[in-house]
Amino acid sequence: MQNSFNTYCKQIGLAETSKILLAVSGGLDSMALLHLLHASKMDVEVAHCNFQLRGVESDGDEDLVKTICKDLNIPYHINTFSTESYADEKGISIQMAARDLRYAWFEKLRKERACDYIATAHHQDDQVETLLLNLLRGTGLKGLHGILPVNNKIVRPLLFCSRIDLEDWVAFVGINYREDSSNASTKYSRNKLRHDIIPLLKELNPSLAKTMQENTERFEGAQKTLHYFLEKDTSKLLIDLGAQKRLSIDRLAEYPSPITILFHLMSPFGFKDWKAMETLLSSESGKQISSETHLLLKDRDYLLLKEYSVPEDQVIEIQKEQTKVEHPIVLKLSILDATDFEGFGSLSEAALDFDKLQFPLQLRKWREGDRFQPLGMKGQKKLSDYFIDEKFSVFDKKNAWLLCSVNDIVWIVGHRIHEAYKLGENTQKVYLVQL
What we know:
- This protein has 435 residues and is an alpha+beta fold.
- Helix content is 40%, strand content 21%.
- The chain folds into three domains: 2-218, 3-Layer(aba) Sandwich (Rossmann fold); 241-307, no CATH class; 315-434, Phenylalanyl-trna Synthetase, Chain B, domain 3 (Phenylalanyl-tRNA Synthetase, Chain B, domain 3, 3-Layer(bba) Sandwich), CATH 3.50.40.
- It has helices at 2-11, 28-39, 56-72, 83-90, 94-112, 124-137, 141-144, 163-173, 189-204, 208-237, 249-252, 258-266, 274-281, 383-389, 394-398; strands at 19-23, 43-50, 76-80, 117-119, 150-151, 154-155, 238-240, 244-248, 288-290, 294-299, 302-307, 315-318, 324-325, 331-337, 349-353, 361-364, 371-372, 381-382, 402-405, 408-412, 416-417, 429-434.
- Strand 10 (294-299) and strand 11 form a beta hairpin.
């Protein structure tokens, strides 16, 4: 194991002189990596996060890490986080909160301690889980190469081996570690794959971890090759016009898969929604989609790309007589007689009781403490909780717009309206908002 580890470290560019900040949870994987790095004579410091999520178990993990580091004479750093409070404040899941907190601290600590890399203990079984999760969520070539051995300042020196390899070696050497009881729960997608799905796949291919690792290396090679050739064509396809860039749809159509080329060109500008870009290509002139930083507009035979920045506290007022909003999103506004309205079934439209609205309406981003009553529910709900329940990503939340009447959120644009503003038997006028 040690020889294979040393060889792999050299293969991925870790020199004996590299200074490593190692993330150690106290579990089998990270404790194995700690001992392997220590035996390789590399300069190592340890970082341990106590997320205060498992009570005395979390404290026990911290105590073990401290003890082992003292025994091995390795410098260590401990940070205790109020993870649940952070998750609630940001309106994100506990898992996402823990990830954000640890990586922000790791990078800060890496700079302070002048370390070359942050090392994590991901192995081939983690690679299998990541690849399957990416496939289930939808991905391109970039997602298919899974966890990279080196990604900027983060290294994964255990991607050469499987979990069973580590278990056998840890048992043979006699390394002390702790089990995280939450790993046994199947309420998380990754754990469900680990305990229920992957064992079935291993019945079909006992060498699943090794095979998947080899596959990801091939996918990474294919993605790099595609990137190499497309970079040569980028300047010909994406014409710089100063304040904006222009892309000829006819030139794009010359490629076997125009949407693949478009996705590659737009990804650096924050566009990740493959389906939205595909739809834009076949839409009429005037349609547009947006990323966190840019707008992509179809203008006849071209796509126009321009940067935009919307202040988080910006509020756009909508007057009663207004029929359209052009920016930062495009909304069509209509007032209809209720007897003429036949209803709809699209999330991109909101039919509201006109007489319950107070103008001017406001279009704004969400704020901490926002609440509303989702259609079909009784009582108010914190918007941060709604985002979690509806599985909004950090990107989704940042780009969410709210249509408001005074202090009420009447529509999370593109998602759900407020129960109190739905159409009823006494509705006389319909205020129709179309995204």
